[in-house]
Write a structure and sequence with these properties.
The structure is a single chain. The protein is 45% helix and 17% strand. The protein is of the alpha/beta class. The strands form 2 sheets. A 7-stranded mixed sheet has the order 3-4-5-6-2-1-7. Strands 9-10-8-11-12-13 form a 6-stranded mixed sheet, with helices on both faces. α4 packs antiparallel against α5, α6 (163-185) packs antiparallel against α7 and α6 runs antiparallel to α15 (426-444). The two termini are 22 Å apart.
């Protein structure tokens, strides 16, 4: 049995981030049958405070043998089943930082608890029926959300907006299976199946599965974000563009070509989508060894990016250096950024337009004057949409595991349709229909294996 299934006993873990000299509160969470006894051993609540469920007690945490004071704290009590894990849960709300929470956790481990495995609190919530697998994954997504839209999508999963349609699809498959098996067991007592009705029902289920599968790309985009590389010749205004876009002095800006020697990163949110922006070193031939390393890293960043912003200097026009860089990155999704547009006249701008390649996506900016950033973000969202990634409002988005299970369910239903078309016996119909039911059940956890749970919960932090 895998380590993640070792869910017996009372567990404890630090449930908040531990940062030296930062954070006002640190929480140690304990769950299991001995949680209350452990709290009563370690926590002293002065006066006549009542030890009841969903009460917060004020007091002191002391070493049970030496009575040495460890921290002044609050104790939160949540008795089963009205808790996150549906077990008895207590939380010690200590002073933030490192020492207090570490000492309290150590006392818990010395007095009967064991250190929780990654995600074990949420695993117990799942095994005890508190959440299904889609909700558990929603919790992980909410913790790791990089944008408000990603958080809203995670909340939708946590509230069961994905689980509900999946369960309905599975129920519909079970109804069809029941109809088929009834004809197998009681063939003489029931009228024959209407093949057209069965096929119609299967087609409806498959159509809903396809609709859910269409949210996969959007889900991946919200979870992992978009990697955007700003590339171009030295001194075309790449760093100025990054600074204007991020509204910070993230990159050093000078009039000297080659100032940026390495890739500079900045995290932004565009239209609800997390964006990792990479300001790269100017690409050119050079004998400077340090700059040469920076140029090579720029090329690698461009090749690894989801989107490239090829930036040129409007005052210099379309140069041979711009053309060479364009040939290196034209295979990537690309936006041409004509920067320093404020330094040229309108007729010069028209001349540049005739020189540059016939690119569908190009914008004009004056980064030093903070102009053109809105147009840049609009162009990025257009690129996203043109890639058939729905960046508009959507209340749910599946992940890779869920997409794999839905794809398997879709394939199984297609096999059922093929079996019916070949006029094979009813027993053959049920084989792939059961496969679809199992695949749908894997999404919510009604059909689950140890390896699936191991993969999901091992990605959680220890205190969740």
């Amino acid at each position: 049995m895998s380590e993640v299934f070792a869910t017996t006993g009372t567990i404890a873990a630090i449930a908040t981030a531990v940062v030296p000299q930062q954070g006002s509160v640190g929480i140690v969470r304990v769950s299991g049958s001995q949680a209350m006894a452990l709290a009563q051993t370690l926590f002293h609540a002065p006066g006549r405070q009542v030890w009841e469920s969903h009460q917060i007690l004020y007091g002191y945490i002391r070493h049970p043998q030496t009575q040495q004071l460890v921290d002044e704290a609050l104790l939160l009590i949540m008795k089963a089943p009205r808790s996150y894990t549906r077990e008895d849960v207590v939380e010690f709300h200590c002073h933030g930082g490192i020492m207090a929470v570490q000492q309290v956790l150590q006392l818990c481990l010395e007095n009967g608890a064991r250190l929780a495995q990654p995600g074990e609190f949420t695993l117990r919530a799942f095994l005890n029926g508190r959440v299904d697998l889609t909700q558990a994954e929603g919790i992980a997504d909410l913790v790791g959300a990089k944008s408000p839209q990603a958080a809203q999508t995670a909340l939708a999963g946590l509230q069961g907006k994905l689980a509900h349609p999946i369960r309905q699809l599975r129920a519909n498959c079970l109804d069809i299976l029941a109809e088929i098996e009834a004809r197998i067991d009681f063939e003489e007592d029931l009228p024959p199946l209407d093949d057209k009705v069965i096929i119609s029902e299967i087609e409806k289920i498959a159509a809903e599965i396809i609709r859910l599968l269409a949210t996969k790309d959007k889900g991946e985009l919200l979870r992992t974000g978009l990697k955007v590389a700003i590339v171009g010749r030295p001194n075309v205004g790449k760093s100025s563009l990054l600074n204007a876009w991020s509204q910070s002095d993230r990159a050093i800006v000078t009039d000297l070509p080659g100032t940026t020697r390495d890739v500079v990163e900045s995290q932004l949110v565009v239209g609800g989508i997390p964006v990792q922006v990479l300001d790269t070193a100017g690409i050119r031939e050079t004998t400077d060894q340090v700059e040469k390393i920076g140029v090579e890293r720029s090329r690698r960043a461009a090749n690894a990016a989801d989107l490239v912003l090829l930036t040129i200097d409007a005052s210099a026009g379309w140069t041979e250096g711009d053309r060479e860089i364009y040939e290196q990155v034209q295979h990537r999704p690309l936006i041409l950024v004509i920067n320093k547009i404020d330094l040229i006249e309108e007729n010069e701008s028209k001349n540049i337009q005739t020189q540059i390649p016939n690119l569908k996506s190009k914008i004009a900016t004056a980064a030093a004057q903070n102009q053109g950033i809105d147009a840049l973000e609009t162009a990025i969202l257009e690129i996203v949409k043109s890639g058939k990634v729905q960046a508009a409002d959507m209340d749910l988005a599946i992940n890779q595991r869920q997409a794999a299970a839905l794809t398997q369910a879709k394939i199984s239903l297609e096999q059922v349709q093929a079996t019916i078309a070949q006029q094979l016996p009813l027993d053959f119909w049920t084989i792939d229909l059961r496969g679809a039911i199992q695949a749908l059940g894997e999404i919510t956890g009604e059909e689950v294996t140890e390896s699936v749970l191991d993969k999901i919960f091992s990605k959680f932090c220890i205190g969740k």
